[in-house]
């Protein structure tokens, strides 16, 4: 089996499996964010649960971090290897004739997402880790102790139009990445997606609706606070 | 019609090579692309110049020898055809046509538009066959029942002519469509089962060894393949390799 993951196809499987995990993560992230639109209370409860439940913090979170790093590192290695596989470039190449822009530019949409993740980490993840694990405040309460802090933190971040703008741009790239990536992951694990129109449509829907959801939530908070 | 051709000229494997412009006149739209190249070469020979070297054999779309990257696409702008089947009516009078060899590290240029595709042969030798005892007691293949669906899919995979357009078109110079087709044609038939695990392992290992890139599912190969080999074959190869490893 170790030989398998060293082969080109084994790596494809690994890339796809990390993609599945990340796509599942996105869905649950979106679901929790959506709560913030309907009920500050529900959002606070859900955030507190995710932020303090041991299985999420000590099992899923490390898996997620590993998955993200793996997906990026392998993506870069793949890109470099593939560039090397064609030493002399074509003088004229009509890529648009046979493949989508998204499929040919996964590295660039991926880089845009990476840039966003750095911002996102600084925005939310680092302060969260700081509060919980460095300052040791696991209560999830506001400084004055009056209720949970999560909803306040979220809405506070989306006041800045620059941040909201950056979010929108990032999610456009995420959508482009997913428009190829969703079905590509299924194809990689050997699912017969090639002929299944319905799979293509599910992929399109996921790739557009999920990023759109995040954008709408950001806009909602921007204009409501 | 009159055309300007921009053609890759490279004296041998070690030469750096460059694009050179040529003019051809009075090309009939009924000519095949290779016939147009013949006209150019006659012109070159008559003027004492070195003709453009290009691969070809059957000139009817079955041998897979003809190659050429024409205006940024393997086998040119038409679909489901090889370069020998490409008609000049796909172009317009006054057009400039860029003609390059198939490019991949695993397909080194030998001369001009001729590339060495023996990497494909080595992949085939690694497992693209079945071993049959020809002692005289060999079972007649037709006496083994095979479902119509499997037979059709195996036949579709077997139509791959090993031209290499998939590699040439792929932004990653990946050979997975070719190898997928070769693995599939046996994986779908009872005769292929006994050696199935070794076949896929060895063929994929050889493919990786040859320096082809990794597939990222862009689907360019499927579109440019003259035989319409589908991506399904790559998915099947991936399943076969997983099966062989568990
Ligand atoms: S899969 Fe298609 S493009 Fe690739 S070698 Fe076979 S016939 Fe040519
Ligand atoms: S020359 Fe045989 S396929 Fe074109």
Automatic annotation (TrEMBL), chain A:
<dbReference type="GO" id="GO:0016020">
    <property type="term" value="C:membrane"/>
</dbReference>
<feature type="transmembrane region" description="Helical">
    <location>
        <begin position="106"/>
        <end position="126"/>
    </location>
</feature>
<protein>
    <submittedName>
        <fullName>Succinate dehydrogenase / fumarate reductase cytochrome b subunit</fullName>
    </submittedName>
</protein>
<keyword id="KW-1133">Transmembrane helix</keyword>
<feature type="transmembrane region" description="Helical">
    <location>
        <begin position="205"/>
        <end position="223"/>
    </location>
</feature>
<feature type="transmembrane region" description="Helical">
    <location>
        <begin position="158"/>
        <end position="178"/>
    </location>
</feature>
<feature type="transmembrane region" description="Helical">
    <location>
        <begin position="55"/>
        <end position="78"/>
    </location>
</feature>
<keyword id="KW-0812">Transmembrane</keyword>
<dbReference type="InterPro" id="IPR011138">
    <property type="entry name" value="Cytochrome_b-558"/>
</dbReference>
<dbReference type="InterPro" id="IPR034804">
    <property type="entry name" value="SQR/QFR_C/D"/>
</dbReference>
<keyword id="KW-0472">Membrane</keyword>
UniProtKB/TrEMBL annotation, chain B:
<keyword id="KW-0411">Iron-sulfur</keyword>
<keyword id="KW-0001">2Fe-2S</keyword>
<keyword id="KW-0560">Oxidoreductase</keyword>
<keyword id="KW-0004">4Fe-4S</keyword>
<dbReference type="InterPro" id="IPR006058">
    <property type="entry name" value="2Fe2S_fd_BS"/>
</dbReference>
<dbReference type="GO" id="GO:0009055">
    <property type="term" value="F:electron transfer activity"/>
</dbReference>
<dbReference type="InterPro" id="IPR004489">
    <property type="entry name" value="Succ_DH/fum_Rdtase_Fe-S"/>
</dbReference>
<protein>
    <submittedName>
        <fullName>Succinate dehydrogenase / fumarate reductase iron-sulfur subunit</fullName>
    </submittedName>
</protein>
<feature type="domain" description="4Fe-4S ferredoxin-type">
    <location>
        <begin position="151"/>
        <end position="181"/>
    </location>
</feature>
<dbReference type="GO" id="GO:0046872">
    <property type="term" value="F:metal ion binding"/>
</dbReference>
<dbReference type="InterPro" id="IPR009051">
    <property type="entry name" value="Helical_ferredxn"/>
</dbReference>
<dbReference type="InterPro" id="IPR050573">
    <property type="entry name" value="SDH/FRD_Iron-Sulfur"/>
</dbReference>
<keyword id="KW-0479">Metal-binding</keyword>
<dbReference type="Pfam" id="PF13183">
    <property type="entry name" value="Fer4_8"/>
</dbReference>
<dbReference type="InterPro" id="IPR036010">
    <property type="entry name" value="2Fe-2S_ferredoxin-like_sf"/>
</dbReference>
<dbReference type="InterPro" id="IPR025192">
    <property type="entry name" value="Succ_DH/fum_Rdtase_N"/>
</dbReference>
<dbReference type="Pfam" id="PF13085">
    <property type="entry name" value="Fer2_3"/>
</dbReference>
<keyword id="KW-0408">Iron</keyword>
<dbReference type="GO" id="GO:0051537">
    <property type="term" value="F:2 iron, 2 sulfur cluster binding"/>
</dbReference>
<dbReference type="GO" id="GO:0006099">
    <property type="term" value="P:tricarboxylic acid cycle"/>
</dbReference>
<dbReference type="GO" id="GO:0022904">
    <property type="term" value="P:respiratory electron transport chain"/>
</dbReference>
<dbReference type="GO" id="GO:0051539">
    <property type="term" value="F:4 iron, 4 sulfur cluster binding"/>
</dbReference>
């Amino acid at each position: 089996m170790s030989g398998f993951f060293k082969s080109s196809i084994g790596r494809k499987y690994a890339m796809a499996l990390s993609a599945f995990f990340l796509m599942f993560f996105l869905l649950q992230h979106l679901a929790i964010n959506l709560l913030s639109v309907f009920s500050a209370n529900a959002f606070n409860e859900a955030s507190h649960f995710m932020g303090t439940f041991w299985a999420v913090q000590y099992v899923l979170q490390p898996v997620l971090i590993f998955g993200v790093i793996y997906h990026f590192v392998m993506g870069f290695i793949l890109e470099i290897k593939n560039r090397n596989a064609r030493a002399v470039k074509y003088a004229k190449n009509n890529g648009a004739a046979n493949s989508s822009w998204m499929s040919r530019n996964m590295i660039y949409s991926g880089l845009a997402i990476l840039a966003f993740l750095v911002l996102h980490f600084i925005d939310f993840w680092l302060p969260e880790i700081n509060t919980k694990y460095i300052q040791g405040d696991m209560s999830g309460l506001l400084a004055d102790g009056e209720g949970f802090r999560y909803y306040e933190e979220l809405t506070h971040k989306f006041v800045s139009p620059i941040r909201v703008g950056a979010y929108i741009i990032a999610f456009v790239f995420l959508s482009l990445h997913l428009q190829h990536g969703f079905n590509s992951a299924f194809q990689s694990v050997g699912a017969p997606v090639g002929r299944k129109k319905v799979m293509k449509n599910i992929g399109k829907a996921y790739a557009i609706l999920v990023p759109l959801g995040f954008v709408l939530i950001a806009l909602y908070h921007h204009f409501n606070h | 019609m009159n055309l300007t051709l921009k053609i890759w000229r490279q004296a041998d494997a070690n030469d750096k090579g460059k694009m050179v412009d040529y003019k051809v006149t009075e090309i009939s739209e009924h000519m095949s692309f290779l016939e147009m190249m013949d006209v150019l070469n006659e012109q070159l020979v008559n003027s004492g110049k070195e003709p453009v070297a290009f691969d070809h054999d059957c000139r009817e779309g079955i041998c897979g020898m003809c190659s050429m990257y024409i205006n940024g696409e393997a086998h040119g702008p038409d679909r489901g055809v090889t370069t020998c089947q490409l008609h000049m009516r796909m172009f317009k009078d006054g057009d400039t046509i860029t003609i390059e060899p198939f490019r991949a590290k695993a397909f080194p240029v030998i001369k001009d538009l001729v590339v060495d595709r023996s990497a494909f042969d080595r992949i085939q030798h690694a497992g693209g066959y079945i071993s049959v005892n020809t002692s005289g007691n060999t079972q007649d293949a037709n006496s083994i029942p095979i479902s119509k669906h499997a037979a059709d899919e195996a036949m579709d995979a077997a139509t791959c002519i090993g031209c290499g357009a998939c590699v040439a078109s792929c932004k990653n110079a990946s050979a997975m469509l070719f190898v997928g087709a070769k693995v599939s044609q046996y994986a779908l038939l009872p005769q292929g089962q006994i050696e199935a695990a070794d076949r896929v392992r060895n063929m994929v290992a050889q493919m990786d060894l040859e320096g082809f890139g990794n597939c990222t599912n862009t689907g360019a190969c499927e579109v440019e393949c003259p035989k319409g080999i589908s991506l399904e074959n790559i998915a099947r190869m991936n399943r076969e390799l997983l099966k062989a490893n568990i």
